Every structure is written in structure tokens, then in C-alpha cells.
Amino acid sequence: MGLSAFEVAKKQIDIVSKEMGLHPNLNKYLKRVERALIVTIPIKMDDGSLEMFEGYRVHHSTVRGPGKGGIRFSPEVNLDEVKALATWMTWKCSLLNLPLGGAKGGVCVDPRKLSKGELERLTRRYTSEIINIIGPDIDIPAPDVNTNAQIMAWIMDTYSMNKGRSIPGVVTGKPVEIGGSVGREPATGMGLFFNLEAICKKKNLDLKSQSIVIQGFGNVGGTIAEILFKEGCKILAVSDISGGLFYNMGLEIDKLLQWTKDGNYLKDYKDERYNIITNDELLTTECDILIPAALENQITQKNAKNVKCKVIIEGANGPITPEADKILFEKGIPVVPDILANAGGVCVSYFEYVQDIHAYFWELDRINQELKKIILTAFEEVFKISQERNISLRTAAYVIAVSRIAKAIELRGIFP
Ligand code: GLU
After folding, report:
1. Rg (CA), the chain
2. Which of 80, 158, 410, 413 could bond to 127 as cystine, CB 3.0-4.6 Å?
3. Which numbered atom of ligand 1 lies nearest the CA of 342?
4. 70 lines ligand 1 (CB under 6 A)
């Protein structure tokens, strides 16, 4: 058994603490979450039976502002994972210099097995159970794995009904019609793209002529696949939980997106030119750019040595373990880390939160311009530190993110 997600998160804190010479008190402080709430969600199923689900909401740090982070619905969700994901949100918001902390939530459930009514009841009951620790100035949830704008609308409505007034700023990633932001849905993919352009420039690679492999075909993997396909890149392989498809001449991404949008799995797609591959095979496929955009712990010490690409860009949170990081660094493969690579989502979530508070909405051009500016500023800072100190992009990103949190803790002091 490898390390759990939260053990990985703590190991990353140890690695950066050593690099920065962080005071042991701060190291100890950062390896704990501020609060974690475990809730039980009883749901009356359509057939009259009762099912019990477990949900979580964790605040890792609110020293720089209200908590921020998504909610995932997945059978793999557990407290350890949510603690890790909340910790990574702290670093992500800090790295972009957003006035927000790190939080995350989840329910251990396979939403594909629920009817729309059951899903709505689950979402509303979960929201009621965590109502005292969320709010526009406490903690602002957002979409994550298997959650979407409709689910955010139910959260917003449940919260608002309980408070007796409409409070759109309680969650981001809402439909545009009820206080959502234009550009939020593709924002994570857009952020990945800006990072990809930036790293290609540094490595003298012409992005359009790179071959690409993408693990995951949801909001993150699907969007970046679409953007890169439109750019003219050759996408050699993509996958979802059912498995992957490979074609050395490049997959027709537009058709695959339609296929999965219609509720189908990739492995059932019929095209005799395409080979069906496993997720494991996909990660070690020879390519120029590898984008793990599914779940945590995908590239580990077991398969890292077989990875054959020029650059990795992390669409998912935590897809590479610290042991694998070391192997990849020694192999000279740069990894644009999750807290920078996939930060476009939370960045536009921040814009949505600001727009809701001001009740004044921006146009798409402004969203994308400001997103690009924030992502590229962070990218340049990270790249510079990694060059100066000869450390990985991840450790460099952590140096910046952890320094800002450490400074905030020092300035605020320890209560009482
Ligand atoms: N779930 C996304 C993430 O992991 C977005 C979080 C947000 O927008 O608050 O970054």
C-alpha cells in the first residue's frame, strides 16, 4: 500500500519545509486541518427504501480568507482524501494570491446510481448538514468530480431558503442565470492551456505540433482535449473510468465529446482504427505532453520510470506521488504541478464570488484576460524560483504558497 492522499499532502509539506528552512512550529501547524465535519445523509430512495450516505466538509486553512474548494460525489471519497484536497486548495489559493483559504467537501456515493430526484435530495440534505460552516464569508463550495452547475444551484437554493433570502455568493460554479460567471465551466481547462503555452515556450516546443495523452474526460480532461484539438494538436489517447482509446494518427475529439455527453463510456465507442487501452497503459504511452486529469495517486513509484513524455501537466489534484515526483525530476521531465496547472477553476470561482458580492457581472473577455494574467504571473514566479534553486516546479510552487500562509500565521499570531 502506498501513502494515503493526506499522507502525501503532509509529505509535501515536509519536503518544502526542508527546502525553506520552515520553523518546526509552522510545519506542525500546517499538517493539521482547522476543522472537519462528518455528516450522515439519510435519503428516501425512489423505491421507498432508505439509504444512508456519509459526507464531509473540511477547512484546512482560513488564515488568508474564507475557505474555498469543491465538493465531490464519488464512491472513493473518505475523510483522509477530503483533508488532502482541502490542504491542496490552501496552497492553490495562496499561490494565485487570492484572499481565500483552503477547504473541500465530498459525499461517498456513486451519483450514476441515483435518479435526478435522489441526487437533488442528497445535495439538499448534505447542504443542510454543513450549513453552519459554509457561507460567503465562511467557506464557499464549488464543483469538483461528478458535481456540476445544477448541483451548485440546489446548494445555493437550500442555503438561501434556510436563511430567508437569496445568497448567490455561498457557492461558485452556478448556472449563469442565477449569479454564475461566464467562463467558469471551461476555466480549469483554460488555465491548463495557459500553463501549457507557457511551459512550451520555456522548453522551445511548438505546442501545435506536440502529441498529447489525456487521462480523464470530464470537465477538466474533456475541456483541455477540446481546446488542444481545436489548436490542431494530435491527441493520441484519452480515457474515462471505463478505460481509454488510442490512435496514433490522432483521435477525433469532437465526436468523442458528443459520445460521452450523450452518457456513453469511451470504451463502447466504435471505430475500428481505435485501440482500447487501460488507464495504466495510457499513462505510459509515448507522447510529448501527458495530462493526468482524473484522480489522485495515478503516477506512482511503480509506473513513473515507464512514463515517456517531455512534459507533464497536472489537470487532476494530486495525480503524482512524492516518490514518483523524484523519479520524474531525475528523468528530467518537468511537471507543472496541480496547484498551478489546474488553478484556473478556482481563479474564475474567485471572480464569480467577487461578481456576486458586487452584483455586477463581467464579460467573457475580461474573465479570460484576468485569468490569463493571474495564471501567467504565478507561472513566471514558480519557474523563476525553480531555476534559481534547481528544484522541481512543484517544490517552487510550494515555496511561494507556503511562505504566504506562514507569513499570515505569523502576523495574526496564535489565538488566544
Ligand atoms: N474543485 C476545483 C479545484 O479543485 C475548483 C474549486 C473552486 O472553484 O473553489 O480546484
Report:
1. 21
2. 158
3. 10
4. yes
Query: Please, what are the domains in the chain?
Result: 33-167 (3.40.50.10860), 187-341 (3.40.50.720)
Predicted pLDDT at 414:
97
* Pair 39, 108: CB distance under 8 Å: no
d(CA 367, CA 389): 33
pLDDT band at 2 (very low <50, low <70, confident <90, very high): confident
DSSP 366-397: HHHHHHHHHHHHHHHHHHHHHHHHT--HHHHH
Q: Select from 212, 210, 213, 190 the least CA-distant residue to 201.
A: 210
CB 349 near ligand 1, within 6 Å = yes
Copy the grid coordinates of residue 318: 494530486
**Rounded Cα gap, residues 332 and 390, in angstroms:** 12
Is the previous residue joined to 416 through a cis bond, with omega within 30 degrees of 0?
Answer: yes
Q: Does any ligand 1 atom lie closer than 6 A to the CB of residue 100?
A: no
Reported in sequence order, the residue ranges of 45-181 that DSSP labels E, i.e. its strands, are 50-61, 67-73, 102-107, 139-143
Q: Is 97 left (phi over 0), alpha (psi -120 to 50) or beta?
A: left
Mean pLDDT score of the chain, rounded to an integer? 98
Distances (CA, A) of 234 to 165, 195, 237, 310, 335: 50, 18, 9, 15, 20
As a whole number of angstroms, the distance between CA 135 and CA 157 comes to 13
104 alpha carbon to ligand 1 midpoint, in Å? 8
For 46-69, b where at least 16 C-beta lie within 10 A, e where not — what string?
eeeeeeebbbbbbbbbbbbbbbbb
